Structures are given as structure tokens and as C-alpha cells.
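Morning - 3-isopropylmalic acid inputs below, output right after.
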Amino acid sequence: MSRSINLAVIPGDGIGQEVVAQGLKVLSAVLPQDVKLETKEFDFGARRYHATGETLTDADLDALKKHDAILLGAIGDPSVPSGVLERGFLLKLRFAFDHHVNLRPSKLLPGVATPLAGQPEIDFVVVREGTEGPYTGNGGTIRKGTPHEVATEVSVNTAFGVERVVRDAFARAQARPRKKLALIHKNNVLTFAGHLWTNIFNKVAAEFPEVTTEYMHVDAATIYLVTQPERFDVIVTDNLFGDIITDLAAAVSGGIGVAASGNINPSGEFPSMFEPVHGSAPDIAGQGKADPSATVLSVALLLRHLGYDSEAGRIEDAVSADLAERGATPRTTDEIGDALAARVSG
Ligand SMILES: NC(=O)c1ccc[n+]([C@@H]2O[C@H](COP(=O)([O-])OP(=O)(O)OC[C@H]3O[C@@H](n4cnc5c(N)ncnc54)[C@H](O)[C@@H]3O)[C@@H](O)[C@H]2O)c1
Ligand SMILES: CC(C)[C@H](C(=O)O)[C@@H](O)C(=O)O
Ligand SMILES: [Mg+2]
């Protein structure tokens, strides 16, 4: 039976262009010959915005919808006001395609440098809610530009939205050997949203008696992510806390250059989108300094999502071996991509 992957590719801005090229290189190298890979590139990001003033139109969404999955590099550029592409493209797309499970695994691979003492066993996954919280754009400004300006940014938490992501996290915890799940929030201060999350978490916990649960305030969680990262197995949290703790999680488990993510639409109604956790890194763009490993690992998540488990495993093994053998001599983005492609095809 011949198989095919119809992939939408969005290199985006800055290092997004550089790392996506490596992701595609490794994807082509790992796929067996009977899998037909079709890619369509989209020019979203700063280029499109400057040329047309558009970030993401309804016609774009229709075009993206026709694909099995989306691979994104990163968007965001100093030439575009902050928020225009982040809201107008990235969040619009995550919301339109109902990417409510934002999956961000963290694993400290053997031989990989960490700023933490020793080589702690870090292997956890953050299930970040992806469509609600303070990200919905529910707010506004009055008396703008005056000394009495007031700005609000309301966090939206629906029982429906919280329960579906909490259930997803419990199911993931149940399927992992340690079967542990931590809810991270701030229910001592954000009592309305926090109690909604806690009550739903406790209700669903009753259906998963094998899963050991704990609750942690987000400020304390930043301590434990540094001092005891091995205590975590699965974490579920809201959109903003998840954004912040996954950059921290990346920093302690090999760096932002190796942190992968998937924006999942579990029902499959819309294509899921896979992207590195990092951004467009304007400070190093165009210099061949970006580590493409995060994008390559995001390709592995993409393949696993589409049912290509053994190919995903080969990519993960290749990245792991490459990182373990990484010497002191820096390599370019392209060189790392070539080395990974050689490993998965060898
Ligand atoms: N998913 C996305 O598209 C996404 C994610 C985060 C930030 N952004 C956007 O990217 C722009 C820059 O944001 P930022 O500077 O806050 O975050 P960033 O993640 O782009 O960069 C933070 C730091 O990490 C380094 N870094 C990032 N990726 C790296 C890689 N692959 N290899 C080596 N070093 C790497 C950068 O050089 C920088 O020092 C902003 O416009 C922001 O909104 C986009
Ligand atoms: C660019 C921004 C909208 C985005 C987020 O906050 O989700 C980014 O930081 C991420 O982590 O993917
Ligand atoms: Mg982020």
C-alpha cells in the first residue's frame, strides 16, 4: 500500500527559515521510499506582512486545512510591531485549528550539558492548554497614551476547555511508566480560574486512580524545575504558565535549541502543527548559528502523530547520538542538519 504525507511548510522569519530547511532534509532522509512526501511552502511572517499587510486570511486557512500536518519554523521580526504576527498569525492559527493541546516534552539526553548540578534524570512532558487563558485577546485599553491609561487582559477559562486538556493530560500520564501528573496554577491568588482548574482536575482524577497527582503553585514550580526536575512526569497547566515554564524546562534540559513542540488538534478535524519552542532569534538569524535539533525533534513528533513511530524513533535516536558526540567545535545549522540526515538514512 502506498502512503503519503501532504505537509504544509511555514519557514517564517529569522532562524525559522534556516531550521526548517534542516527539518525537511531529515524528514526526506528518514521516510521509506513507498511514502510519498508532498510539501507546500507558505510565505507567512514578515515578508508577507510587508508585501500585502496580511498575516493570515480565511483563504490561507482553507489552503492549510487541506494538509495532513503543518511544520512551522518561527515567526516574529523586529521590523514588525510586537504582537502583530504573534497574534495575527500564530495565535490566530492555533485558535482557528483548535490546537488545544500544546505538547512540550523535555528530556535531558545522555551527554547533553545542563546548567544544573550533576546529570539529573529529566524526562517530563508539559501539556499546555493552547486556546484559552490570557491569550484570547479579551481585553482592551482606555485613555490610551494618557497618565490614566487602563489596560486589561482577561484570562478566559471555560469548563469545557479546561476539562478536555486535563483529560488529555491524565490519559498521557496513565500511559507513561511513572503515571504522575502535576497541575500547575496559581489558585492561591487567581482564585476564580484556579479553582475551576483545581475542581476539574480533582473530578477527572477520580477516573484515573492509578495516576498519582499533585498540585503546585507556578512560582514554586519554577523552583522545583531547577532543583528537582526529576520529580516531574506529566504537567498540565494553562496557556501562559505553560509558555513560561517550557522555556525554563528547555533551559535545564539541553537548551532552547533542542526543545520541540506539537500544537495538537486531537480530534483530527484540523491539521496539527509542529514547531520548535523557540522563536525567530533575530540576534543570531542569518549566521548559521541556530541549532536545528528542536525543529528536527518536532518533525519526529509530527511523524509520531501521523503514525510513523519507527521513523520518529530513528530521528530521536539520531539527535540523541549527535548531541552525545557533539564536540567543542561549533558546527553550522547546515552541518548539524547534514549529520542528522546522514544518521537517519545510514
Ligand atoms: N513559535 C514562534 O513562532 C515563536 C516562539 C517564540 C518567540 N517568537 C517570536 O520570536 C521573536 C524573538 O523572540 P525571543 O528573542 O523572545 O525568543 P527566541 O526563542 O527567538 O530567542 C531567545 C534566545 O534563544 C536563542 N535561540 C533561540 N533559538 C535558538 C536555536 N535554535 N539555536 C540556538 N539559540 C537559539 C536566541 O538566540 C536568543 O538568545 C519575537 O518576535 C517572538 O515573538 C516566535
Ligand atoms: C510567539 C508567542 C505567541 C508564542 C506563545 O506565547 O505561545 C511563543 O512564545 C511560544 O512559546 O510558542
Ligand atoms: Mg514561548
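Note: The longest strand covers residues 3-12.

O.
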